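Batch manifest line 471
LIGAND: arginine
JOB: complex structure
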Amino acid sequence: MSDKHQAASPSAAASQMWGGRFAGGPAAIMQRINASIDFDRRLYAQDIRGSKAHCRMLVRQNIILPEDGETILAGLDAVLAEIDAGNFPFRTELEDIHMNVEARLAEIVGEAAGRLHTARSRNDQVATDFRLWVRDAMDGMDAALQGLQAALIERALQHAATVMPGFTHLQAAQPVTFGHHLLAYVEMVGRDRGRLADARRRLNESPLGSAALAGTSFPIDRHSTATELGFERPMANSLDGVSDRDFALEFMAACAIAAVHLSRLAEELVIWTSAQFRFVTLSDAFTTGSSIMPQKRNPDAAELIRAKTGRVIGDLTALLVVMKGLPLAYSKDMQDDKEPTFEAADTMELAIAAMTGMVWDLTVNESVMKAAAGAGFTTATDIADWCVRALKMPFRRAHHVAGSLVKLAEDKGCGLEDLTLDEMRTVEPGLTAEALAVLTVDSSVDSRTSFGGTAPARVREAALAARARFL
Ligand code: ARG
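JOB STATUS: finished
ARTIFACT:
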């Protein structure tokens, strides 16, 4: 036997789980590529929960004896306690979490352990464990996103009347309020939570009892295990039960979209905290200094959120590609579902927490924002609207008038509000002192009272409504 085909270890020869047919053990490299215990150990609580439900059902259905059932349940609790306490002897040669738990159960309770796997396969076991895990991850992410919404809504209430430039093309467009801007993210996050809730509904069916792929000849009760594990119902088709991972894909798709939303706010924080903008300041708690440039206060957390979005998108892509073209039912390819899913969940947990921290932390530089809100002729639309309202002009003509006023101010090197009435009348004789009043940023935002608009009164209402809808 050449070196590279060396058996992994003497103890790995002929696995105790399928030893009947296997005389030799796996090559070391086979064990390395095959073993998932280094990552799927994260499923241990779900694995034991699923096994306990399965065991109780086997007893109820008279498939195993009550005394064996009791022994197995007590043993599973002992295994759980060992893993929780951090003194469980994980063994790579036992491949995955399912076989690690079962082998340890056999060490603790003996012969009875061998009855637990009746009417079950690792294929429906892993599908069950993973669904339970992803469901927990969805619930955790939903709570975290709700926390982010709480921060955004409170800050929006504080800044319902704080004026800033609203942008299109990153060019100052029209004045808006900072509260309004933050509430835009509250809506996005609300839809992110909606996507998780939708995906959760579809996820929430039990694959347990699908067995290897075809179901089982034992008189199992899949409805009762589904109920015990908090699922709505058993999955209708055993082949589907063991072979789809669309629930993980949907979870990661929801993560990816939520991450894209976070990346946009992160990017805005990077822009707003720059020396050129100075709209917002982050405290020492959420910035880092430079080892060479003493003036620097870098928004690293925001930059990293922006960056980590790429990972989450990559995680979704990775599993999409794993699943693409896989024939039914289970293939080992599907063991590669876990790492991307875990990474997406972990990344989202970190990114949402950091974003929530920054939203609470940030200080708004109101005077800087307000000055910027008026720069770049952002109230030009207001004067056009005034011409439409007061002079009954068609909007297209009013747009032309406002454009000429902007040109006048531009030529003079001043703002629209700095033009005198006489100067303005050279463009449109119908303009009055009332027209001047609409040129301030405050009157501009105050006037945008349409539903969903930026008027401070509307923003306050919207923030309170968001509280009721989301918190
Ligand atoms: N560790 C495996 C996985 O995560 C468990 C299922 C193994 N099933 C099998 N037929 N080899 O996919």
